[in-house]
Amino acid sequence: MGWNISDSGPIWMQLHQQLMQRISAGVYPKGSKLPTVRELAAEAGVNPNTMQRALAQLEADGLVVTNRTAGRTVTEDGEVLARMCRRLARDQIQTYFDGMKRLGFTHQQAVEFVQTWKEEER
Amino acid sequence: MGWNISDSGPIWMQLHQQLMQRISAGVYPKGSKLPTVRELAAEAGVNPNTMQRALAQLEADGLVVTNRTAGRTVTEDGEVLARMCRRLARDQIQTYFDGMKRLGFTHQQAVEFVQTWKEEER
DNA sequence: ATACTTGTATTAAGTTAATAATACAAGGAG
DNA sequence: CTCCTTGTATTATTAACTTAATACAAGTAT
């Protein structure tokens, strides 16, 4: 899964979000070393400053730790990781229900749509 | 349901999206008259120019028709309305599944989360 | 010790979006 | 006809974000 940058909002926030998703999905496992700022920036096609900002936020969240010259690693704190993971999932679900409600659908209808959804249907 | 403006992306796009949601939800029914640009702008707390841009897009979509001096009305074309409504719902569902997949969940898990979700759980 | 890697900070410039303040166009109401 | 409402267009200014180009700080390896 590559980087997905759109013009919807500050790029550093999108990067921050996608970094969390990668950690949640196990792309960067607990305790593992992250690529360097410059590598990540090149990979995502953004300025190092922008990636840095995203990483600084990740650190503020307590999700990664910075070892001055040895790069960054994902936290060893499983509880913090689990909490983030739950929060992201909860946000997805809540966003879905809110969105459907805005379109005039009931909670029940929203559930049914998901149940009957065929993958790869476009 | 009030206006929900965030710093995530161009405001006029957010307004455009939310206007579609309102039409879908029946806040502005088929053939009904919309508030004036200036009213909508005041209501949403944005500049009239910004609201105008959102409405111009709505018209380009064929969802509203403009009567030069008599304001704007929602289209009478039920087919166009239904198509938009379906598209918005499809986008919601697709976005949900994509998001959960990014977090490392399977399709099946995503379905189960929705089924067991309790409303008002925060 | 010296060079290299890595994170961090700074400053300037360029781009885009939003706002503000008007002005114009066109139809309806009195 | 004249005024009012409504949509539309223009121009300038402001603010935010991103990029660019460096420079610095602090460990590690040779």
Describe the structure in your own words:
Two copies of one chain form a homodimer. In chain A, 58% of the residues lie in helices and 7% in strands. With 122 residues, the first copy, chain A, is mainly α. Chain A folds into two domains: 11-76, Orthogonal Bundle (Arc Repressor Mutant, subunit A), CATH 1.10.10; 79-121. Chain A has a two-stranded antiparallel ribbon. The radius of gyration of chain A is 17 Å and the shape is elongated. The model of chain A has no long low-confidence stretch (mean pLDDT 94). Chain A binds a DNA duplex (30 and 30 nucleotides) through residues 7, 10-12, 36-38, 46-50, 52, 55-56, 66-72.
* % residues in beta strands of chain A: 5-15%
Q: Please identify the structural class of chain A as seen in this structure.
A: mainly alpha
Give the termini distance of chain A in whole angstroms. 19 Å
Number of strand segments of chain A: 2
**How many domain modules of chain A?**
2
Shape designation of chain A: elongated
Q: In summary, what is this structure?
A:
Two copies of one chain form a homodimer. Chain A has helices at residues 11-25, 37-44, 48-60, 78-102, 107-116; strands at residues 64-67, 71-74.
